[in-house]
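Hi C.,

You asked whether I'd gotten around to modeling the 806-residue construct. I have! Everything is below, sequence then structure, no commentary in between.
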Amino acid sequence: MPTGMASRPDGLSGVTELRLHGVGGTSPQSLLDDLQPMQVAGDRIAGFYRTADREGRHVEAYSWGGLTSGSAWRVLWLVLLPFALANLAARMFPSWLPERPVRFRLFLWAARLASFGLTLNFVLLAAAIPIDYVAYQCGGVPSCARWASWLLPPGLPGVRILVGAVVPLLVIALLYVLASTTQNRYDQVKPPAPVPGKERPEQDGRAFLGLSDPGFWNGVAYTRSLTRLHVAGSLALVAALVAWTAHGVRPTPWLPIAMALPVAVVVLAVGALFAGARPVTWLSWLLLGSAASAVVVSALLAVAQPPGDPLGPGPHELPGLQAFAGWVYGGVFGAIFLVPLTLVAAACTRKDWPGVGWRTVLGGGAAAGAVVLLTVWEADYRWVCVGAGLGVVIALVGIVRGRDGFRWAAPFVVLGLAAAALNTVMLATLLLVAEGLGAVRPCDDPYRGGCLPAPAGGETPIAVLPMMRNATPYLIVVPVLLLICFLLYEGTRWLLSGWTDRHEVLTEYGEKSAPAEPHPEWWVSTVCDGQVPGWQERLVRAWPGRVARARRLARVPRDLDLLLTSIVVVGAVLFAWIQSRLWLSGRTPANADWLTSVCAGIAMALPVVMLWLLRQGWRDERNRRTIGVLWDVATFWPRHSHPLAPPSYAERAVPDVQRRLWWLHDNGGVPLVAAHSQGTIIAVAALAQPRSRPERDRVTLVTFGSPLRTLYAWAFPAYFNDALFRRLADGPDIKVACWRNFWCRTDYIGGPVSAPGPVDVELADPPTDRFLYGQPLPKVGAHTGFWEDKEMRRQITMLARRAGTP
């Protein structure tokens, strides 16, 4: 039954204002200013709510926050942030790339290959921790494994390796269950179409239509095939690791047979990734079954190993692990670097190819020069100076280039961040587990001169590859230094803007005519000379500078690409330098012991901090919503590159909005979509598909705080660009009846869309310079103040009246 505040749910004729909230999961009560709105469609996770009619129109809200922050369990998706970044990177290609179909397909294949490599990277570290440090090293010392001697027999290293492999197999099974469950819950929701079931899947590199593709939100068949390919590759990796390391402990002639099947699975999976959006169902099932068979074969090989360990119980790494990890990391980083190579190869066919060539040569030369300088100019701390200096130079070059979009190769940068985040957390977890089991000692592979004699008495020594322990300073120190430089640069500009841009604020507000207040003696202006109480004079004089600083702060997010690019490029250079040292001398660069110890301690604290953050988000709904803000941006895109990423809420939200608009149209309604922040992305995605809209519909679109231009056109220019905005404003196929985009210069997320016609409407923020004597000064609303803006609400009412006029 309807509540006393809501209108009848079947009263759909006339204008209906449909509100879409932004990031953070605003409740329907707050969105409609109604303590008890009535749900008219959807469910408790994502539904449509209605309140009483206002100013001659129905008012509804679509609350989709439950898709990202509704349940306490969803905060655990934060663990899969690297996979979400990899899935994001595959959509960040330049707008001109689809014009070259062959190179476009190569890029998409390289992006999917890099995502596949990140999965193998994760599984490698998730397997190395239980197999090497827990099962092999700790299980081989009776004093360390006394709690599980029945499970980890000291005299059977092959059995211990196999027992340790159960943990990564369980992790793989959990990821597969999560992916399959969320695909059934989110990806199964199909967009509406004139003929149900006739939506075609998204075309990969052929007829690129962007968001207008009828099958853009209907790729569940391919996602499932891709999931099976990733799981098959993961199982094959574990099988190969068990066989290879068991052979390293005691050589066996059956190794080629045990390694042939998992290697073939990985090779065929890499080839299947080239198939694009065409689901390779039969091949994915075949590879999954073959990978499971490879696990069984490796298990039999490990169990058949004779008892005893030739190397004894002394501290040493699992034999063969160092070489195996080197091959895996070589493939992973090779796949990541293949992404910028495909972009450069495609860019060389454009008219501005000389500029691309020179930038590539200069960038590669600078990186190679930094590696040579680090090799020649070797000392404990000079890598810090070289790394930080290189990062600053990259940022300065980016500032000179301007900010039309992401200033460097966005897919490569985001993939690099994904790899850095994954390895930092996993290596930190590795060190934390090793420290908990005994005394950590840096030790090479025993067949490469690793330490073997066990110390008499004391804690159990746990050997850790020097690369895994000594690499922590490079993962911690330089990114922190670059972050400090970035904050100093932006902070200095923010402080100076309070003086340099103050006059602009004074002029802007001073030119506005003073409102006719009923009691003008009670009203005070913050920009005009007049009588100001002494106790408020300091605040009034500081007000223009505060507004100017708010406007400068709103531009800071557009510079984040400088920081991210610097961190990734410097990290790649340091990684290349460390690897060159390993290949040439067999050892990592030296560091001061105190620096290595401090960075190792910081690294080991990272998993603890992450668990604490997850626990805080789990207990408090407001914290869950704060974490959900990250997912609202990172999980918008379908999982067509990394299927094990967190689920895409837009797979359900976009079809939900499309069906509601169609329902209103079929019942004589005229929709007015009022969308804020991330809600504008959902609204535009819903309206961008002509086949998912009824013919001759009349939709009025109102956006505010919109990141269409500032974030999505900046990072995803192939999907959000002038062509899409022009088609929305002028048509012919996806034109809306009217579009207004409200923005203000203090908004750190939204901004103008620069579409043709009178689309953009700038709002003053604060809306006035006048305040009541004794009351607080006018506040900056920034990104969250649109819903309270009286001028915007007045214009929305005018648009609703115009929409209701036949």
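If it helps when you're writing up: Residues 208 and 229 are 25 Å apart (CA to CA).

Thanks,
B.
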